[in-house]
Each structure stands twice: as C-alpha cells, then as structure tokens.
Amino acid sequence: MTGSSLTQVSAAWVPLAAVLLLAVAAAGAAFDGAVAARAEGRPWQHGAGVPVAETARLLRQRRRRTVAADRPLELVGTGGLVVVALLMVVVVPLGRWTLGDLPVGIVWFNAMDVVVWALVWLAGWGPNSAHALVGGYRFLAQALAYELPLMFAITAPAVAAGSLAVGDVVAAQEGLWFAVWMPVAFLVFCGAVLAFSVRAPFSAPAGTDLAGGVLADSSGIDRWLLLAGRWALMAAGSAFAVAVFLGGGHGPLLPAWLWSLVKTAALLAALVWVRRRLPTVRPDRLLPFGWVVVLPLVLLQLLVVAVVVVGRG
Amino acid sequence: MGLRERLTTAAVRRVAVLVVEVPGWGRTRCAAEEQLRRRGWRPALTPADADALLVCGVPGARLAAAVDLVWDQLPGPRARAEVLDPAGTAAALDRVVAELSDDAAQRADAASRPGEPAMGIEAGADPAQDDAEDMDHGDDDPEDDSEDMDDGDMDMDMPMPAGIPLAGGGDARDGLEMDVLHVPLGPVLPAWPAGLVLHCTVQGDVVQETRAEVLPPDPAAEPDGDLVPGSPADRCDRAAGILALAGWADAAAAAARLRDDLLSPGNPGACRSALERLTRRVRRSRTLRWTLPGQLHGRLLALLDEAAAALTGTPTPIALLPLDDLAPLVTGQELGAVRLRVAAAELAPGTLVRSGAGLS
User: Fold this and answer.
1) Domain ranges across chain B
2) Which of A302, B68, B111, B292 is deepest in the core (most CB within 10 A)?
3) Is B153 helix (H, G, I), strand (E, B) or coil?
4) CA of B129, closest CA in chain A: separation in Å?
5) Close Cβ partners of A69 (under 8 Å, ≥ 6 residues apart)
6) Where are the alpha helices (DSSP H) in chain B?
C-alpha cells in the first residue's frame, strides 16, 4: 500500500539517489571549507576544494590500527553512518518522486536517526582508545538530550497532516509551509540535525578537547567514511526538514524536484553557517537544557498544533 | 599512472601536520602554524589524523622517545621534518610536501613497517622509583591509551587481551565502581604547553589524580625563544588555544591570525581594531559563556583585554604558575575541562625548564 499521492520510482534509481545525496553532502563540505578559508584570511575559492583534497588524502592514506581494537564493531560504526544517511533519504521525496512511499515514513526516519546512537558509540568503542571512548560516551549523553525533542518536533507536522506518510505531509503544506506556523518544531529539528551529525554546537563527541574524540584514532578510508557519513547525515536531515517543514517541492516557476534541491541546499548552507558561528556546548550543559527548556517548548508547540487541527475540524 | 599522479597531487594540497613544540621553541611553533594557515594546510589533532610530523626544536632524550613513538603511529604516507627557527619553517614544509609526493619512497616506507600495531612504551613510571632507567621514562602518545591501562596493584593472573592487563576498578565520585585508567596527556598534543606531560588517573571521563612534569629539550641545544610572557602575541596565542579547545575554529583562527600579525612588524593600528572585533565577538557569545567551565570565559576576556592594554603600552604584569600548582587546578575535572584549564593556566614550560623547576 502506498501512503500518498507521490510516485514511487523503481529501485533502479537508488544509485542515482545515493550519488545525489553524496553530491549535496560534498557541496555542504565545500561551502564549509570556503567559510573556514575566509575566517583564516584566504580567498574562499581555496577552501571550496577541501572535500576533494581531503578525499584524495584519505584514499591514499593507509589504515592505522590500534592494539586490541574491536575491529568488527569499529567497522559497523564507521561504515554505518553513510548507510543510515542513505536509508534516511529513502523516504524523502524529490519533487513528486520518492524511492519508498512508506505509510510510516516519518517513523522510518526517526528509527534511522536512533541507529546513529549505536553507530557513533561503536565508532568510539572500537579503537580501544580512551579519547575515542569518552567521545562515544559524550555522544550518548548528547543523544539523551536531543532525541526526545526531535521525536516530538517531527510529530507536529504528522499531526497537522493527519498522516505519517511524508507525501501526505508535503501535500498538506500547499499554500502554507509548516515551518511558518510551527517555528519551534522546525528550529528544534534543525538543532537535532546538527546534533546527530555531530556538528557544533553539538560537536563535543568529536571535540578538539578530546583530540578528535570518536575520530581520534581513525585514519584512511575509515576516517573518510566517518567524515562523509557526518556530512551525508547533515544533508539527509536537511532534505527531510525540507519535506516536512519547508513545503517539499511546492513553489512557483521551478519544477518540483528543483525546488526540493534548492531548498535542501539553502537549509544545509544555513546549518553550516550556524555551525561555524557557534562554539561547542558541553554535553553536561546540554542535558538539562534539552529536558528543562526545549522539551516543554516543543510539547507546547505540539499542543498548539493539535488544538489548531481539532479547531479546523 | 596518470590517475595515481593526479591523486597524489590532490592529496598533498591540504596536508595535515602534527606540530610538536619543544620547550623553548614557541616562536618557531607560531611561525609553523602561520605557514600552515597560509598554505591552506591544517594542524592535525592526533597522529592518526596526520600526514606529517613537524618538530620545532631539539628534544631531550625522553621527549625524543615520545616523538619517535608518535612518528610510528602516523598511518602513512608520512613525512617528518625538524625546524629550529621561524625562518626555516617554509623550507621544512616544502621538504614535507616533496617527501609526501614521492610515491616510491612512501611505498618502501610502508613495506618496511610492521603490519600489526605495536605496544608503546610505558608512560606512568614514577621517576622517583626507578631513576636509573632511561627507556621507561619515554613517554607515549596521548591518543592511544591501550598501552597505559595497567593498574599498579593488579594481579598478574588476570587475563591479558593482546598483552594489555585489564583495568582495575575503583570508586568514582558518584559512588559507582568504575575502571581506573592511566592516561598521560601530552607531550605531543595541540593547544597544550610544550613538553608538558600530565600523568592522569582517569575514571570514565573524570581525571581523579594527576602528576605534572615537563620533558626538557636537549641540554646542548640553544633554544630559539618563546613568545614573551605577557606580550600581546602571547596573550592572543593563549586565547587561540582556549578558543580552539572550545570548538570555535573560526574565532580561534582569528586569534591566531592576530598573534601572527603582532609578531610580524606591521601595522599596529590594524591589529588593534582586529583585537577589538575579536574581543567583542567573544564577549557577546552567550554560548561560549554558557559552555566554558568555571571562570574561563572571564579569563579569556581578561587575556584579550591584557593584550589590548599591552598594545597601548601598559602591559599587565603576569605571574607564571609553578608546575606544582597545576595538579590541584585540574584534579576532579572532566577531560575536556582539564584541557581548557591547562590551556588557560599561565604556564611557561621554556622558563620552567631553564630554571630547573620542571625537571624531574
């Protein structure tokens, strides 16, 4: 059974979707490099090549192992992030087309982002190294702070659309984006995207003060998978936010698929900008903030949305 | 063939360099960091992250052993260079890129290395107990704790996976029993005082006990010189360290740029306005105020204000922190907080080493 008015394309398109996701992720990394180059007083063009240079560097680098590393679990953790990001975009429509028009697409996305808990933790556990392990613990503490607000934030559009299918949520935004009348849920979701992709202000698990934390002992292709996985998660999160909060493919003039892409790129750029503007917040500061401030706020948002929906009949 | 060459060219465009500062060569380290920034390269955080090892100064025996161990942990392709004065950094980095681009030599290097990771040398040995040995004092890399998990009072019948004794347990501050690990911080660690080793006893992420020492440079070598303690450049260097550890890369880059501008004879007016901009940015950041532990946000602002005062000709006298006072400052803190507090402490390893206070 399909959940909505979207066209479900055949599985043969999966490689193209993967390439598209990695391209958007690379564009995000390039923009990040350009902003960083500006901050260092160099022309931005110098920084835009960072993803290419870093990829070449890591492809050429040997893999370094540590004593008594838990190799299988380490591989699951490092390789898993890209896979989870790909599984996330399965339910994200590009204009009218989607790979998997699940009736419970929103729950699917949520399930995938919970898998990130295990993956980052395993990436920290694997190398048998104190800094990486503490990084893994930090991610769990951080995940406790952001996960519940994230769940309630993506519940709001589902309640408003009366469906858990992403296609229905997009269709319900014709004329008015959900981000406009549920701004708190939108902002909380954007924060959660930064958090599950381990970006500032939520980058403590990979913090400089831990010598790179979960990244401390990874090298070569392992490191590339971790870095690319973080960028891909950020891109996938942005794409999902576009579908459930920013009207998906709705927009004038341009075709729907292009609107999806343009909005995703714009949101990703905004998230990169935020990440460069802010320092890292310690997880022990984050936990009380997440539960005492953000969680009540997002529940209130959900209440408002529910009242509006009931009021509309 | 063409593909491999192109990959190599792309791979050495942004080299990650692990910079090691030997006590007494602070100015050389700053010059190296400036060179990295100009070239669009980046400082590496760990040996696993690094393509190249750049040693600023002539290390003494123990520091040299630590540097050698770190060198063994670079994944490769790898290059190593030594530099003794600020003027030599550009040439040293040119050598690095030539060495990294030499595919044949890198292959030979890779083939000559053991495939399995090796156990490191022990760091935790207390010099008071066995001062006759040399190798035992050699320190190791902070990122690889695996060789440091030994607990002094452990039973030798315990299982030892890969030759590593299991960690012993101990009561943590919450009353839970947690594993006790011995993790040395330093001497090769970015944003960290030169040559400092903090022998930490860690439970979870809390540092329960510490002992600090400074690994000296080669006594026969003549140090090139540190930043003048209390000078505007020194203040900015410390601020850059704190900001980098706080995860605010762009503000740290601004502080490091300012430091380098202050070190080069140039336009003090431009420095003053850049310093004002940075101070305003730091003062306004509520996130930074919220996340920095203790009084560190105030300390950071004080550093920038002192830099401004020194620029206008009224330097603030500073009191250097004796090494023995470092342990009480950091004991009982979380690892990240320890790093921040050490970066903010008024330590000057070069001075300590010269006066003999840091030697153990």
Assistant:
1) 2-111, 135-214, 232-355
2) B292
3) coil
4) 26
5) A126, A127, A128, B117
6) 2-11, 26-39, 61-73, 89-101, 103-111, 232-245, 249-263, 268-284, 286-291, 296-311, 326-330, 335-344, 349-355
Residue spans per domain, chain A: 7-312
pLDDT in tens, A134-183: 999 999 999 999 999 999 999 999 999 999 999 999 999 988 999 999 99
Neighboring chain A residues of B164 at a CB cutoff of 8 Å = 67-68
Give B19 to chain A, closest Cα distance, Å.
13
B294: which 2 tokens?
Answer: 């203790």
CATH class label, B2-111: alpha beta
3-state SS of A217-286 is: CCCHHHHHHHHHHHHHHHHHHHHHHHHHCCCCCCCCCCCHHHHHHHHHHHHHHHHHHHHHHCCCCCHHHH
Residue B166 has a CB neighbour count (10 Å cut-off) of 15
- Counting residues of chain B whose pLDDT is more than 70, the rounded percentage is 84
Q: Which stretches of chain A drop beneath a pLDDT of 70?
A: 1-4
d(CA A3, CA A258): 23
Mutate which of B33, B46, B72, B297 to test chain A, going by most A C-beta atoms within 10 A?
B46
Q: Can you name the residues that pair with B54 across neighbouring β-strands?
A: B19, B81
Q: pLDDT at position B356, please?
A: 61
A157: part of which helix (H) or strand (E)? helix A130-161
The residue among B236, B264, B263 whose CA lies nearest residue B252 is B236
CA-to-CA dists, residue A288 to A142, A295, B110, B163, B300, angstroms: 11, 10, 49, 41, 25
The reported pLDDT for the residue numbered B158 is 61
| Residue of A65, A130, A207 with shortest CB distance to B181 | A130
Give, rounded to a whole angstrom, the gap between the first and last alpha carbons of chain B. Answer: 54
CA angle B288, B249, B271 (to 5 degrees): 90
Residue whose C-alpha is closest to residue B326's, from B304, B348, B350, B351: B348
Q: Which of B38, B42, B39 is nearest to B50 (CA)?
A: B42
Length of chain A counted residue by residue: 313
Length of chain B: 360
Contact (CB<8Å) B191/A208: yes
pTM recorded for the entire structure: 0.89
Do residues B140 and B120 lie in contact, with contact meaning Cβ atoms separated by under 8 Å?
Answer: yes
- ipTM, two decimals, is 0.91
What is the residue-averaged pLDDT of chain B?
83
User: Closest by alpha carbon to A2, among A95, A102, A104, A108?
Assistant: A102
CB A206 within 8 A of CB A198: yes
Whether B189 sits inside 8 A of A218 (CB atoms) is: no
Judge: B77–A64 Cβ closer than 8 Å, yes or no. Answer: no
